[in-house]
Amino acid sequence: MVSAPSLGEQDYVRGGASQIPVKILVVGHFAVGKTTFIGSISEIEPLTTEERMTQAAEHVDDLKGVRSKTTTTVAMDFGRLTISDRIVLYLFGTPGQQRFVQMWEDLARGALGALVLVDPERLADSFGVIDLIEHYGLEYAIAVNHFDGSPLRDEAALREALDLLDDTPVVTCDARDEKSSADALTTLVRFLLDRARQEQ
Predict the structure, then answer these.
(1) pLDDT tens, 7-38?
(2) Mind listing the pLDDT tens digit for each residue in 65-119?
(3) What is the CA radius of gyration of the chain?
(4) Which keywords appear in this protein's UniProt record, sorted alphabetically (predicted)?
(5) If we measure between CA atoms, which residue out of 161, 15, 30, 8 comes closest to residue 95?
(6) Strands 20-28 and 77-82
(7) Residue that wins the pLDDT comparison between 121 and 114
(8) Cα 183 from chain centroid?
(9) Which of 61, 116, 167, 169 has the fewest Cβ atoms within 10 angstroms?
(10) How many CB atoms within 10 Å of residue 189?
(11) Stretch among 9-13, 121-125, 186-190 having the lowest mean pLDDT
(12) What is the per-residue pLDDT across 126-171, written as a single tens digit (0 to 9) for each?
């Protein structure tokens, strides 16, 4: 049996150039589409920790509006996206349920910012997530995951409902679509770069 050749550092970097790794969190409430988002955009096979939901979970997790959901993330999702010869994003998806909040401290450590996925039909479920992101001092952008048949929300009304600062980016995306997901991430990265320049 022939063993596979080992991969060196150069195999992970385009053209052998030195790259800057950037840790980004993809967060949101339960069943908002975080696993789908990372899966749609990752250039590697994403790492997921999804498990089948049991009947016992129905008494813990609010399945209102998501009755078709059969699996849930129990640790994290992980993906990678190279956005230039210099920058590679490492995407960490957090579990959305309150009982997994204790994992956030480890996942947030070293993160440059966060993309907060929001369901326009369950805005109130996002309050706790945004509170956590602000607690850890992370800059963030809002990505409204537009589900089939859901009405488009007025941005001003959405900002008011989520109590966002005027400069917090808000975009609409489809977590199933690679280009749409890429556009949302690009918005976040540009925002983070602008913030970094302002602080210099």
Answers:
(1) 444 444 445 558 889 999 999 988 899 999 99
(2) 544 545 554 458 999 999 888 889 999 998 865 656 677 788 899 999 999 999 9
(3) 18
(4) GTP-binding, Hydrolase, Nucleotide-binding
(5) 30
(6) unpaired
(7) 114
(8) 13
(9) 167
(10) 21
(11) 9-13
(12) 999 999 999 999 999 999 998 776 777 899 999 999 999 999 999 9
Distance of CA 83 to the CA centre of its chain: 16
Taking residue 68's Cβ as centre, other Cβ atoms within 10 Å add up to 7
Q: Which of 184, 178, 183, 186 lies closest to 46 in space, CA to CA?
A: 178
DSSP string for the chain: -PPPPPP-GGGGSGGG---EEEEEEEEESTTSSHHHHHHHH-SSPPB--EEE--GGGGGTS--TT-TT--EEESS-EEEEEE-SSSEEEEEEEPP-SGGGGGGHHHHHTT--EEEEEE-TT-GGGGHHHHHHHHHTT-EEEEEEE--TTPPPPPHHHHHHHHT--TTS-EEEE-TT-HHHHHHHHHHHHHHHHHHHHHH-
Residue in 87, 164, 160 with CA at minimum distance from that of residue 131:
164
- Supply 200's token pair: 């210099």
> In whole angstroms, what is the distance from residue 85 CA to residue 18 CA?
8
Place of tokens 């989520």: 162
Tokens encoding 46:
């994403």
Cβ neighbours around 164 below 10 Å, total: 18
The pair of structure tokens assigned to 87 is 């920058």
